[in-house]
Amino acid sequence: MEKTLPKSIFQRFRQQQRGRTSLDRATADAIAHAVRVWAMDHGATHYTHWFQPQTDTTAEKHDSFLNLKTSIVNGVESTVAIDSFSGSQLLQAEPDASSFPHGSIRSTFEARGYTVWDTTSPLFIQDGPHGTSVLYIPCVFISYNGEALDEKTVLLRSNEAISKAAVRLLHMIGDTEVRHVHTSLGVEQEFFLIDRGLYSLRPDLKICGRTLVGSVPPKHQQLDDHYFGQIPSRVLATIAETEMELYKLGVPMKTRHNEVAPAQFEMAPIFEESSVAVDHNLLTMQVLHRVAHRHKLKCLFHEKPFKGVNGSGKHCNWSVCTDAGENLLDPSVKPESNPRFLLFFIATVYAVYKHGTLLRAGIATSSNEHRLGANEAPPGIISVFLGDQLDEVLNAVEEQRELKSFSQHQIQSVKVGGTVLDLKVATLPPISRDLTDRNRTSPFAFTGNKFEFRAVGSKQSPSFPVTLLNAAVTEALLEITSVLEEVKGDKPKASLEDVLTVVRMFIKKSKPIRFEGDNYSQEWIEEAARRGIENITSCPEVFKKLLEHQKLLTETVPILTMAELHCRYQVMVERYVKDLVIEGNTLKTMINQYVLPAAFDYRKEVASTLVSLNNLGMDINDIPEKKVLDEIGNATTELVKLENKLCDTLEKIVTINDLEQAAVVAHDEIFNLAEKIRIFTDDIESKVATKWWLLPKYSELLFQL
Predict the structure, then answer these.
(1) Is there a domain that residue 88 lies in?
(2) To pair with 386 at 20 to 30 A between CA atoms, which of 6, 81, 550, 619?
(3) How many domains is the chain partitioned into structurally?
C-alpha cells in the first residue's frame, strides 16, 4: 500500500489503523482503486468480504470487478464492460444475517447484516480456478442494528480494552513512552490426516467428523513411536505444499511434526498480533483441508475423531507486548525485581483464578467434551502451572524473603548450575535452561515468556477463548491499578516496593489456582474441590457460566452488550443440541445399515455351520462356533434395545421447546447412550469376520498413509 498509494493517503490510512481517525470517502476510493489494480495484476477477477460467523469457520461471497457502463454519444446509446471497485464496496457489504447463527438477534424477516473491512488485518489474494484468483477483504460482521454477530468484533474490542488498561498501569510505574499494547498469539494446530478413499466409506466421519463406532487396534500409540517420528512421505508432501500456499498468503508457518497418535500431526506459526493470528489460523485450516484433498487425504480437525487414542487441541500461546515490541511477560534475569513482569504475570494468574469458569465456558463444545479430561488433554478443571522457579519467585515475594538457590538441584545425573545444564560430555556444549518446565497436563501453563492455553479445541476458532481471556486479564489489570494508586499515594510514579506490596496482595488472593502437579490425578480432583475450584464436565452446565460473568463482559470490560452475550449463550446451547442430535441420527443409521446387517449375516453363516455339524452327529454345545453364536446374539440383542432407546430419545428431543432442557436431555441421554451403544458395536466388530464388516477399521484408518 505504501508503494502504490499517494503519501498523504497512506498516512491517513495508518492513522485510521491506529484508531486516530476514520476513513473519508476520498481516502477509501483511492485505496480501493489501488487495491483493485494490485489484485487484478495478480489475476484477481473477484473480491469477497471474508468474515467469521459463530460457526468456528469463515464465510465468503464472491463479487466480480465487472460493471456495465452505459453512455450516449451523438444520440446513440452504447454499453461497455469495465472493471471498477469503489471505496464503499471496499468498506462494507451486505450478507444475510438471519442465515448465520444469531441467537434470536435476527429473524427471517429481519435479514439485513453488514460486513465491514477490518483494516488491522492485511488484504490477501487466494488462487481460484482456471488461473484466476480472488481478493479477500478481512471483515467484521454485524447486524442491521450494530450487534456483533461474529467472532472478530468482540476480539477487537477486547484487544482495545486490554491495551487501555495496560497502558494506564505502565504509565503509573513510569513507562510513559508506551502508547499502545497488543496481545500476541501463537496457535499450535493439531489434526489427523487419513486416506480419503477410506474416509469416504465412513458415514460418521463424513457427517460428524468423528467415528461413532470402531474398536482400537492392538497397536496404536502405546509404544510412543509416532511422536516426532519421521513424517510419512505423502503427509510431508501435503504439509510442505500447505506451507508454501500459506507463505503466499503471509502466514508465517514455523513448525511441523508428528503428534502422539498415529496419523496425527501438528503445524505451528511464528507468533503475531492476536487478531491477525486468528485470521491466519483459520486460513491454515482451510488451506490444509484443500491441499490434503489434492493429495487424496482427508484432514480431520475434530477434537476426538478416534476413541482410545489422543485427541487434538489448539494450544494458544498468549502474551502481552508493547508498541515497541517488548514482551511484558518476559521474566528477565531477575523476575523478582522486574515490576512490569510481576504486575502482568500476577494479573494473568489472578484473572484465571477469578474467572476460571468463564475460560472453561469458552472452550466448551460437543466435540471438545470428548477430549477434555482424557489422558492426553488437560482436564476440565482450570488451573495455572508456573514451574518451580517462578513458583518460588511468587512465594518469596509473598513471604518477603530471599529466593532459594536452585544451583544444587539435581535432575537425574544432570547438574543444574543456575540456568545452564552441564551434560558432562566433552563434545556437547552447556545448554541454557528455561525458568519453567513443561506441564502438558495443565490447561493454562506459563512456558517461558507466555501462557499456553492448552485446553482450546482443535476445531474451534481461537477467537472467543482469547477474547474471554483478554477480558478477564483486563479486569485484573484495572483492579491492580486501582490498588496500586492507593498504595502509591501522591508520588509521581509507583516504586518497586509499592509494586511488590500490591503484587503480594494478589499472590495471596490467587494462590488456590496454582498447581504444579499432575492434573490427571485423582488427588488433584479432590484437592481442587477442597480449594473451591469447580470441576464441570457437562457442557450444558458449563454454558451457564458464561452468563454468570455478565457483569465482567457487559459492564466492567464492556466487550458485549446484553443482547450479544445472550446471543452467544443461545448459539452455544443450540449448536450443542444440534450436534448431538446429528450424531444420534447418524449412529442410528449406522447401526441399522452397517452393524446389525453384518452381525445378522455372520450369525446366519455361523448358525448354518452349526446346523451342518449337528446333522453330522456332532454335539453343537461342545464346539467353538456355538460360543461365537451366543456372544454375537447377546451383543446384538442388547444393541437393539439401546438403539430403540436412542430412537425414543431422538423423537422426544424434537418435542422439547425449551433449549436449555433440550441440551440437558441431549447430554444425559444421547451422549451417554452413544457411549453405551459403542460398547456393543465395538464388541460386534471384534467378532464379525472382516468380509462382512463394510466399514474401514481403525487399523486401516490410522495406518494407511
Answers:
(1) yes
(2) 550
(3) 3
Residue 130, number of CB atoms within 10 A of its CB: 6
Q: Which of 495, 530, 560 is a domain's end point? A: 560
Count Cβ atoms below 10 Å from residue 526 Cβ, excluding itself.
11
Q: Are 300 and 197 in contact (CB under 8 A)?
A: no
Query: Pick from 89, 85, 110: which is nearest to 99 by CA?
Result: 110
CATH of the domain at 684: 1.20.120.1560
In a domain, 228, yes or no: no
Say what the alpha-carbon torsion angle 509, 548, 575, 311 is, to the nearest 10 degrees.
10
Helix (H, G, I), strand (E, B) or coil at 101: coil
Task: Find the DSSP H helices in 387-495.
Answer: 388-399, 463-488
CB atoms within 10 A of CB 164: 16
Structure-block grid coordinates of residue 481: 491499578
Question: What cell numbers appear for 398 in the block?
Answer: 509473598
Domain contains 197: yes
Check whether residue 13 and residue 74 sit in a common domain. Answer: yes
Specify whether 92 is located in the same domain as 198: no
Pairing of strands 133-143, 44-50: parallel
pLDDT given for residue 407 in this prediction: 45
Phi first, then psi, for residue 54 (nearest 5°) are -80, 55
pLDDT per 10-residue tile (average), the chain, 705 residues: 93 87 89 96 96 95 93 84 93 87 76 91 92 96 92 97 98 95 97 98 97 94 90 97 96 96 97 97 98 98 95 96 96 91 98 97 94 71 92 93 63 42 74 66 91 95 98 98 95 95 97 92 91 92 96 97 96 97 97 97 91 80 86 96 97 94 96 95 95 96 93
- DSSP state letters, 620-687: GGGSHHHHHHHHHHHHHHHHHHHHHHHHHHHHHHHT---HHHHHHHIIIIIIHHHHHHHHHHHHHHHH
Give a yes or no: residue 182 inside a domain.
yes
Q: Which residues of 531-558 are buried (b: 16+ CB within 10 A; e: fewer)?
A: bebeebebbbbbbbbbeebeebbbeebe
Contact 317, 185 (CB under 8 A): yes
Q: Do residues 499 and 342 touch, judged by C-beta distance below 8 A?
A: yes
| 259 conformational bin, left if phi > 0, alpha if psi -120 to 50, beta if neither | beta
> Which grid cell sits at 42?
495478480
pLDDT (0 to 100) of residue 242 = 98
Nearest to 248 by CA among 276, 298, 284: 284
For residues 466 and 269, what is the distance between their CA atoms, to the nearest angstrom? 17
Quote helix, strand, coil % in the chain, to nearest 5.
Answer: 50, 15, 35
User: Is residue 184 within 8 Å of residue 320, measured between CB atoms?
Assistant: yes
Contacts of 369 (CB under 8 A, 6+ apart): 537, 539, 671
Distance CA 514, CA 507 (A): 10
The secondary structure element, H or E, covering residue 220 is none
Q: The domain containing residue 75 runs over which residues?
A: 7-146
Are 265 and 231 within 8 A, CB to CB?
yes
Same domain, 359 and 469: yes
Cβ count within 10 A of residue 416: 15
Cα separation values, 84 from 33, 118, 124, 599, Å: 8, 21, 18, 64
Statement: the pTM of the whole predicted model exceeds 0.70:
yes
**Which of 497, 529, 560 lies at the terminal end of a domain, its last residue?**
560
